[in-house]
Amino acid sequence: MAYTNFTVETDADGIALVTWDMPGKSMNVFTAEILEELNAIIDATVADAAVKGVVFTSGKSSFSGGADLSMIKSMFSFYQDEKAKDPAAAAQKLFNLVGRMTGLFRKLETCGKPWVSAINGTCMGGAFELSLACHGRVASSAKSVKIALPEVKVGIFPGAGGTQRIARLTDAQSALQMMTTGQSLTAARAKAMNLVHQVVEPDQLISAAKQMIKDGLKPVAPWDEKGFKAPGGGIWTPAAAQLWPAAPAILRRETSGNYPAALAILKCVYEGLQVPFDTGLKIEQRYFTHVLQTTEAYSMIRSLFISMQELGKGARRPAGQPKTELKKIGVVGAGFMGASIAYVTAAAGIPVTLIDRDIEAAIKGKGVGEGLVKDSIGKGRLTQDEGAALLSRITPSADYADLKDADLVIEAVFEDREVKKAVIEAVEAVLPAGAVFASNTSTLPISGLAKNSKRPADFIGVHFFSPVEKMMLTEVILGKETGDHALAVALDYVAAIKKTPIVVNDTRGFFVNRCVFRYIHEAYDMLIEGVPAAMIENAAKMAGMPVGPLALNDEVAIDLSYKILKATVADLGEKAVDPRHMQLVTDLVEREGRLGRKNAKGFYDYPPKPAKKSLWPGLKDLYPQKKADDVDVAVLKQRFLATIALEAARTIEEGIVTDPREADVGSILGFGFAPYTGGALSYIDGMGVKAFVELCEKLAAAYGPHFQPTALLKDMAAKGETFYGRFDPYRVAKAA
């Protein structure tokens, strides 16, 4: 029988090699068609007496990344449609749908013939769950091999037998750690955890897998053998008595109870290890069905899986623009930010010229890349040769003429209009026709900077976040005259360096910084009210933020906040800023000399390592302090999330952000807005716009007019609308 996505070749020893190689796709993914074909392959190999065993592998450089977007989307769409008709029946149908992959993998596991998974490259999610159902697993020793069950990162958990098989192959603590964090394992680590049987050289992968079958691999999973005991003895042992009471407490410490899927993993393992394997699968199926019905799962999958992939693949790229072949990039400004931009560009295989005022400064900038390469080599992420090749692509220079053949030039110089004006003029004097100029400004409007350009249609903002090599988001900012060509080139560049772009229209602070400073300014309000600083930081983290607002302000620098406030007053007048905020940062910077982490003194003190940072004791002397018992932590959490979500809603109302996917993805990747909400706008949609408006009105009455809901929000509340309904990005795309 011929298959669309698989080839099956049986050798003289009776071993069938099943190769998964989906046509037209860079990576194999699970779809309904894949499940149907795999089911047919299991039936065919079982029925063929000549087949003694099966080796399952990938024909691509990676094994598989798991489920396809369309499969995930269809599951949620199906449930939402059915729920409107009959909620109970919808839940039952969802339960049956969830069990399809579980049942197929169990069928493979109990088919009576040995299957070996030969893992090359990335093997994640459902692909690793399929591998776990095989009787043998061999992994390539190549550096590209990454094995993981990362579902918890997008609001769900391994629901095709993963929680039951992992917990029966390795000890419960390691199983929980792997699944509740979604961590990636190397092949060697997976073998040490007993999750794969062998690690071999890449060219020996298939032969080693076949040899397992020739050596008499039993077609029976360990848990299907009589007398099987889970590693460590299961639940009722002295070791388990220490693990299980602590596990929920540790999880709550790490997640503040915000992630239903993470808690479901604990329940699946704890309950599943006390019953026979097939009953454990049913337990997992029930919890998975429950989690799929939560707002958190729906919102996280939409933003962190579907929207991120769509934006990364160019959802906002203008139609009709040819793909740019980037042969050379210029970066002007070899400070830490510019040097880091040059590094990620070179790491993507693109030659880059790094310009500064003199060659010594440019060479010093390349040194930033040298430090990052050294660190990567030390951690085994790069070989010496790869590191040397990367650095060879960075050319330091003090001569603007070296940019005469650049496709794109990014300026990353000091945040000063006159300095940037001089750079724009110097670059444009040599830049070829059709090349694009991008500013990495974080505070200055792009349209204003473009007034210094002779070619504003090819002038755009590309805003990176620090540290550039780690932060996955890039803001692409359109000036009033920016053309489609410049936007296409910028998005092609962001895709080349493997970052996720959001496209925003021009405004002070763009999108991310507007939201970030609302977060920080709410903390200023709380400090001024006398809320203890430790409560402010802890409440923010309990709300789901990765870093407290005071710690975040230290990272971005308090003196930068001071400069931004002063610039805002200069441009918009004194009423544009809260005078109490101005007084607070003025006192910290000018009177106390507390600039943030950069001078080891900010809202926190930063003693020499290994000592940890701690809140500056002097904070409690700035304002009369409230007693902790008089402060409602739940309200603090609401204030943080609501003030950021309100600012995101304002950017939509003002036309700064036009696609709700970008507000959600930008808020999570840009500054870590409570990922379990799915992002700032999904937070509003998740609770309902009407409920959000009521919350804001309540907060405005108690904490100030900045919480007043906008006209757009009131209109949406009255009409029962959502952001994803009113500003449906798919409807807009179809219309275009």
UniProtKB/TrEMBL annotation:
Domain of life: Bacteria
3-hydroxyacyl-CoA dehydrogenase NAD binding domain location: 328-507
Pfam families assigned: 3HCDH, 3HCDH_N, ECH_1
GO BP term, pick one: fatty acid beta-oxidation
Gene3D superfamilies from the UniProt entry: 1.10.1040.50, 2-enoyl-CoA Hydratase, Chain A, domain 1, NAD(P)-binding Rossmann-like Domain
Domain 3-hydroxyacyl-CoA dehydrogenase C-terminal span(s) in chain numbering: 509-606
Catalyzed reactions: a (3S)-3-hydroxyacyl-CoA + NAD(+) = a 3-oxoacyl-CoA + NADH + H(+)
Key words, A-Z: Fatty acid metabolism, Lipid degradation, Lipid metabolism, Lyase, Multifunctional enzyme, NAD, Oxidoreductase
Membrane-crossing segments per the record: none
Gene Ontology terms for molecular function: enoyl-CoA hydratase activity; long-chain (3S)-3-hydroxyacyl-CoA dehydrogenase (NAD+) activity; NAD+ binding
Biochemical pathway: Lipid metabolism; fatty acid beta-oxidation
Family the entry assigns: In the central section; belongs to the 3-hydroxyacyl-CoA dehydrogenase family.
PANTHER family, per the entry: TRIFUNCTIONAL ENZYME SUBUNIT ALPHA, TRIFUNCTIONAL ENZYME SUBUNIT ALPHA, MITOCHONDRIAL
Protein's name according to its UniProt entry: 3-hydroxyacyl-CoA dehydrogenase / enoyl-CoA hydratase / 3-hydroxybutyryl-CoA epimerase
Native source organism of the sequence: Rhizobium hainanense
Upper taxonomic lineage: Bacteria, Pseudomonadati, Pseudomonadota, Alphaproteobacteria, Hyphomicrobiales
